[in-house]
Every structure is written in structure tokens, then in C-alpha cells.
Amino acid sequence: MAHPASPFLSVLILLLVAAVTAIAILVLSGWVLPLLKPSNPQAAKLRPYECGVQPLQEGARHKYSVKFYLTAMLFILFDVEAAFLLPWAVNFKHALWTFGAMLSFMATLLVGFIYAWGKGAFEWER
Amino acid sequence: MSELDINDAVMTTRLDAVVNWGRKNSLWPMPFGVACCAIEFMSMMASRFDLSRFGAEAMRFSPRQSDMMLILGTITNKMAPVLRTIYAQMAEPKWVISVGVCASSGGMYRTYATLQGVDRVIPVDVYVPGCPPRPESMIYGVMKLQEKIEKESLSMRKDHIARFYESLARQESLQAEKGLTSQQAIREMLMDAGERGVGTIF
């Protein structure tokens, strides 16, 4: 009489073959094949790849200043102000009543300017 | 009933032959494209000429993953240390093909700013003439390199590369000692080699 587990003998064999194959691949790739491959550790190979140029800073995770961003934003703000002022000044004598509107526009920007000044946005070294 | 002859069943070979057979049919090119030869290189890699027929289709733009450097264009003195660093960072074993007259000898740029042949600073295996060479001649260069790989011994290639690393260490110590830039150090090494009547610095 056959053992009740005997139909699963093939499954056991499959498992064993899979385990042996896995271990063989590990041993081959880990210990046998490295004997064949050329091994020549060099400092140049461990350096970061920056298109062949010596790296300029230690790592890529340095903090960098965002001051230029602030300067650029303020420049755009006052650039727009100037862009509004010029055509307005050219047509001013045909529309004298717009003086008040332009004054309030300038006042709004002036508040922003004073605020940025007070925050120290114009000081490069801080 | 015939007996099994051992010579029919078993094939023996040298390790060199097997390893080199593998190496020559799986070259990973790295284009060092600095001038118009790189345009011909694109053509060489594309479907019309198709370098993948020679097992070298895995083109990589990083020296870490490639072992055949193709120098495609004029190398200036300013570029020489960059070329040396990238060659140093390539995976071993590595081979170099100098494509076109500019890379091979400076070509028409007979000037103070141009390196008169890249073989002065890194070891070159095959030179391909032309300005720029047609893709067919570049493929012929790769085939010549394959022939060369087939014949070379494993230790020979190792020593070949070791000599280059020695020269790189010399360059770096020169930079550290005298406070020179890498360009100045290579220039000094070239002058020194010239005085000794040698054309190369490795």
C-alpha cells in the first residue's frame, strides 16, 4: 500500500531542485565567478561621475541660497510697475483724473517695498 | 558497437580563448563624442549600419557600464584630463578606438590648443582614419578590435591598464606637489616624455 503522501513526492523533488539551483547560483555568482572577473579597485572609479571633471563640492546634498529667487521676484514686481508707469505718463495730459488711481497703485507697491526692505530682502549678506 | 571516443564528447580549450570570445562579442561602447565623427557614430549605431550585428549595441553614456571607448572628434589640451578621468572610470577590461584623424593625430588642427593624438595620454587599441570616417570604416575598426581581443592574453590586458593607472597616480601627485591644474600636470608629463624621446605619458 502506497504512503498517502506519495503523490507529493514529485513536489518535494521540485522543491529540492529549486533550492539547490538557487544556492548554486548564489555560490557561483558570489564566490566562483569573482575569481574570473578582473578586479582593480581605483580611487578614480569611486569618485562621482561629473563628465570627467573633478567634483566641485563634496556631495550633491548641499543647501544653496534662495536669495537670487527673491531678488528676481522683486525685480519682476518693480518691472511691472515701470511698465505701467511709462504708457500712463505718455497719456497723462489726456486723462488727468487717473492721477489718484496711479497714486494708490504706487502706494500699494510702496507698502510692499517698505515691507521687503524691513525684512532685509535687499541685503545680500545676512 | 562503437566505443565513445572522448575527443568526440569533450571539447577542451584555453581560458583565454573562452573569456576573450565572450569579451569580443559583448562590447559595450561609450561614445566620447566631441565633434562630427559622433554624427557618423549615430549612423553606425542606427539601423542602416547597425553595430548590434557585432554584439555592441548596448551603448552607454556612463563610463561605469561600458568597456569600449570610441573617441569621436578633436581632443583639445583642455579636454585631455577629462578624457583620462573618464577612461580611468570605465569598467575593466577596457579598449579604446580612436576615430578620425583629429583624435588619432590632431588632424588638420596642428595648433597649440589641440592634443596631437590621444595616444599621448591614454592607450589606444585601434585607429580609424577618415575625416570623418564612414560608418563602414568605423565598423571595420570595431572588427579589427574584435580580432585583437581574440588574440590577446588576459594578463597582457591587465598590465596594459595598470600602466595607465600608474601614470594617473603620477599626474595626481604632480598636481598635489606643485599645485598644478590637471592640464598643466599633463603638459609637464608630456614635455618630460618628449625629452626622454617617448611619445606617451603612460
Secondary structure topology:
The complex is a heterodimer of chains A (126) and B (202).
Chain A: H1 9-32, H2 43-46, H3 67-90, H4 99-119
Chain B: H1 6-9, H2 15-24, E1 29-33, H3 37-45, E2 68-72, H4 80-89, E3 95-99, H5 100-105, E4 126-128, H6 135-151, H7 154-178, H8 182-195
Helix pairs in contact in B: 2-6, 3-6, 7-8
Strand coverage percent of chain B: 5-15%
CATH class of the domain at 16-151 in chain B: Alpha Beta
Secondary structure tally, helices of chain A: 4
Strand content of chain A: under 5%
Helical fraction of chain A equals 55-70%
N-to-C SSE string of chain A, H for helix and E for strand: HHHH
Biggest sheet record of chain A? none
Radius of gyration of chain B: 19 Å
Strand order of the largest sheet of chain B: 1-2-3-4
- Low-pLDDT windows of residues of chain A: none
The end-to-end distance of chain A, rounded to whole angstroms, is: 91 Å
- The helix-and-strand class of chain B reads alpha/beta
Descriptive keywords:
heterodimer; A: mainly alpha; B: Rossmann fold; four-stranded parallel sheet; 8 helices
What does this structure look like?
The complex is a heterodimer of chains A (126) and B (202). Among the domains of chain A are: 8-38; 67-119. In chain A, 0% of the residues are buried. Chain A has helices at residues 9-32, 43-46, 67-90, 99-119. With 126 residues, chain A is mainly alpha-helical. Chain B has a domain at 16-151: Rossmann fold (3-Layer(aba) Sandwich). Chain B has a four-stranded parallel sheet. In chain B, helix 4 links the parallel strand 2 (68-72) and strand 3. Chain B starts with 5 loop residues before the first helix and ends in a 7-residue tail after the last helix. The relative contact order of chain B is 0.14.
What can be said about this structure in brief?
Chain A is mostly helical and 126 residues long. Helices cover 58% and strands 0% of the residues of chain A. Chain A starts with 8 loop residues before the first helix and ends in a 7-residue tail after the last helix.
